[in-house]
Structures are given as structure tokens and as C-alpha cells.
From TrEMBL:
<dbReference type="Pfam" id="PF00353">
    <property type="entry name" value="HemolysinCabind"/>
</dbReference>
<dbReference type="InterPro" id="IPR001343">
    <property type="entry name" value="Hemolysn_Ca-bd"/>
</dbReference>
<dbReference type="GO" id="GO:0005509">
    <property type="term" value="F:calcium ion binding"/>
</dbReference>
<dbReference type="InterPro" id="IPR011049">
    <property type="entry name" value="Serralysin-like_metalloprot_C"/>
</dbReference>
<feature type="compositionally biased region" description="Basic and acidic residues">
    <location>
        <begin position="1"/>
        <end position="12"/>
    </location>
</feature>
<protein>
    <recommendedName>
        <fullName>Peptidase M10 serralysin C-terminal domain-containing protein</fullName>
    </recommendedName>
</protein>
<dbReference type="GO" id="GO:0005615">
    <property type="term" value="C:extracellular space"/>
</dbReference>
<feature type="region of interest" description="Disordered">
    <location>
        <begin position="1"/>
        <end position="22"/>
    </location>
</feature>
<dbReference type="InterPro" id="IPR018511">
    <property type="entry name" value="Hemolysin-typ_Ca-bd_CS"/>
</dbReference>
Amino acid sequence: GADDTLDGRGGDDTLEGGAGGDLLTGGAGRDRFVFGDEATASGDQITDFVRGTDLIVIDRAGFGLAAGYQPSVVTGADPQATTAGPQFLFETDTGRLWFDADGTGTEQEAGLVVTLTGVTALALSDLLLI
């Protein structure tokens, strides 16, 4: 897939870059940045994510998350999975959000989902699992 540049400008936008390393800018408003498949999450970058206003939307099926499963978000300069289940890992010094499908398991490595420019904290409330 190609690398795309998407700019929502004003208003409430839903942006989904798809395959490739995409540059996403929501602009003003309550924006949703959609990631539909762990396999196509190729390290997109969101330039203007605002905690408490914007949301990172994660498709449960695409990331292999069972209905009702509530993954945790582990944060820190070098976050490490804390349990054997799927977890999101957020690097507070780089703004990188990773997904680790098997947590402390050894079958899969964490994959980069997105880099949030200028964001130093992230919580589960910043994610919407659909």
C-alpha cells in the first residue's frame, strides 16, 4: 500500500489511511483516527492528536481482540507487556503506540500502530474499540 497524507481540516473527521505509513492530520474538531487491521498498521503518524477530544479507533476483529475484551495500555519510556494477553504499549518519550498481540508471550513481537506527535501520555479512554 501507498503512503498517504490525509488532512481533515475543520470539523469532526474520521480518517483511515490504510496500508502504508500515512500522515494524518484531523484539524479542528473531534476527530477519529481508524486502524482496522494489525497487519496494515504500518507506523502511521498523527500530527495533532488531542487527548480528551480525539480518539484512536481500533477495529477489534482486525486486531484479533474478542468482543468484550478490554486490553490495557502500558505507558512509560520503555513500556513492557505485563500480562499474557493483548496489550497496547505507549512510549511516553516518543509518542509511539505499539500493539503486542500476546503480551508477555514469546510468539509475537509488538508492532508499531501509530506515532502521536507531541503526545506524552495516553490512556485507554483515548482508544475506542469497535
